[in-house]
Amino acid sequence: MQLPVNIPHLPDVFLAATGRTFFTCLLRHFQSCFGCQQLLVASIPDDKAPATLAAAFDCGFPADITPQALLEHLAPALALERDQLWVWTATQSAEGPLGTLPPSLGVASVWGCRLLDESSVHIGYLLLFGGAGQDSAQLLTQLRWAGLRASGELQRQQMQGPLQRQAELHQAVLNAIPMPIFFKDTEGRYLGCNGAFEKFLGKSRQQIVGQDVYGVAPNDLADVYRQADLDLLQQGGEQVYEASVATGEGTQRVIFHKAVFYDADGNKAGISGTLVDVTELRAAEDEAQYLTHFDTITGLPNQTLLRDRLEQELLHAQHGGYELAVLCLDLDCFKKINNAYGHDFGDQVLATVAQRMCEALEDEDTVARLGGDSFIVLAQLRSARTSAREIAFQLLEAIRQPIRLDNRSIFLSASVGIALYPHDGNEARVLLSQADAAQARAKQKQQGDLRFFTPAMNTAVTEQLLLEEHLRRAIEERHFFLLYQPQVDAATGQVIGAEALLRWRHPQWGLIEPDRFIPLAEQTQLIRPLGEMVLLQACQQARRWQDAELGNLRVAVNLSPMQFQDQDLVAKVCRVLDQTGIEPCRLGLEITETEVMRDFDHAIHCLTRFREIGLHLAVDDFGTGYSSLSYLKHFPIDLLKIDRTFVSGLPDCRDDAAIVTAIVAMGFGLGLHVMAEGVETADQERFLVDLGCAAFQGYYYGRPLSAEAFTRLLCTPWVAHG
User: Fold this and answer.
1) What pTM, to 2 d.p., does this model score?
2) How far are the Cα atoms of 623, 627, 635, 636, 694 from residue 670, in angstroms, in the given order?
C-alpha cells in the first residue's frame, strides 16, 4: 500500500530501534502527527486467556487509573473486536467500548490494531488513545504499518521474557551458593560468576565479565591460571590445584576445582570452576607444623625435629668423613628460678639462654630444647673447627653471663655431657643416651662441669636400654598389676577410697619399683599405654566393688603429665566409664600440681569436663610444685593432697609444720578438702587431725594391697587408730 504524499512516513529510527526505545519513538511520532497521548501494548498468551499489559507509554496518565486498570476496562470490547484496524469514539452510545472508562481519563478515541505473528496468529493489540480528528484515515494507515513492526517487537519480547526470567533465576541460584563460582569461554574470558566470587575478588560482576585472567589478577598469578586453563582444555575432564589469589583483602590461598563444559554439539565451550579459600587452614597447618617441630618458648627445634636433624647430620658426617659432637646441656638449679619468680619469668630466662647458645655456635650447628631446662647441641667437628671441649666451654661461658630481666640479675651455670660420632657410636638414639649419661655424671660431680662419655658410663646406658626393651615386652605380655592403698576418713577412721598403684613383676628380675620404670616410661612415651591400662583395670575393679555393695568406695588413679596433655583424654576416660559401667563418682583422678599449672586453658577444659561428668578431682603432691593461687581457685577440683615429704617431718620439724598448716588453711579458704599422704605415726595423725585435715593415706593405715586383700579389708570392721 502506497501512503499518501501529504502524510508523514514512519521515521527511519523505527528500523533500528528495539524494545522500549521503539515504542517510545512510536508514541512520539503519533503524538506529534495525530495528537495521541497514550500507547498500550497488550499480549495474549493463548486464545482463551485475556489480554495482559506488555508495555505502557504515555505523556501523562491520570494518577487515579493505571495502564493495567485501563486495559481491564477495555478487555470485554477487545474480546469482541474482530477487525484488524478499528477506532472507538466517545460519540458512540454509552454502552459503547469507551462508555466504561473513567471520565477523568478524558479519552475521546481509541485506535487499535490487532498484532499477528508470522503465522497470522493473534498475539496482542497496539492501542493509541486520543488524537486523529480529521486525519483518522491517515492514522489508521500508519497504524497498520506500525502494527507490523510492533508485532515483531512483541514476539521478541514474548520470547525473551522466559529466557530473561530463566537467566535471572540461574543467576539467583548461583548467588545463593556461598562458594565462589565462575565460568569462562575457551579464550579465557569470564562469561559469568556468582556473588560469592565477586565478594572474594573484591570486584563487581561488571568488572569481571568480559575480562580474561590478566584483567583481574597480577601477571604472575594470571600466568598460573591461564596455563592451568590451557592444560585443562587440552586434556578435558576436571582439574584440581592450589594457588594464590589476589583479593581486596590481600593474597589468599585457594584450591581451584575446574571442569570443561560443552555446547549442544559436544564441542568444548569453556571452563566452569569454583574455589575454596584455604588461607586459614594453611595458616593453621603451618602453625601445627611449627608446634610439632619447634619449642614455643625458645623457638628452638624440639625433640621431634632434633632426632630428624641428628639422623641427617650423621649421614653428612659419614659421607664427609668428619666427627660430630652431641652435647647434652642441663641448667643447674633452674627450678629455684621458677619457684622464686614464676614460670613466665623462667620462660623468659630460657629464651635468653637459647639465644645466647645460638650466638655462641656456628650457623650449621643445631640447638634444640628437649623440655624443662635441658638442651641438645649438634656441632660439626671439621678439620678447621675447634674441639668439642672448646665448644662446650663457649656455651658455658655464654650461659654464665648475668641475665638481666625485670630489674633482676640472674646467674646461671650448666652441666654438659658430650658424646662423639663415630667414637662413641653411630646411631642417633645411642649418642643421645650417651650424652645424657655423661651430663648426669657431670651434674653429680659439681655444677658447671662437663664430662665426655666413657665406656664406664656405658653400663648405665646399656641397663637403661635393656630396661626399655623389657618394659615394652612387659606391656605386651601384661606383666603389670595394681595394688590399692587405703584412704581413710579423718573423723570416722573408715576406708573411703583406694589409690591404684602400678607394679611390675618381671619373670626373672622380680618386683621392679615404680621409681625405676615410671621415669623411663615417661621418657619413651610408653606411659600412654601404661596409663590407659591402669585406668581400665582400676575401673574394672571399682565395678566389682560397686556390684558387691561395699560402700561408696572411690578409686583414685594418677594421670601422668603425658596423659594429661593428651587432647583425647576426656573421650578416653568416657569410653572406659561406658565400658566398665561404674558410677562416675566412684572414680577419682589425681593430677600433679605442676602439670595443672603447665597449660592453664587445657587444664580448665579437661577438669571442667570431668566435673560435669561427675568425677572426683584431686591435685596430687601439693606443695612440691609452683602454683599461683589466683589460678588455682579457678580449677574445679575437690581435694588437695599434701605431699609425703612435708608429712614425714611432722610434728617436730617446724618448717614442715608451717607448710602443712598453711596448705590446710588454704584448702579451707578455697572450699577444698585436704588429704595428707605418707602418714606413718600416731603423732603425725594427731597433728593433722588438730589442723582439720579431712583424710589420710599412708602405712599407718595400711600398705598397698592386692584387690583380693583390699576386698577382705572392706569386709572387716575397721578400727580407727588413735
Assistant:
1) 0.46
2) 15, 14, 10, 11, 14
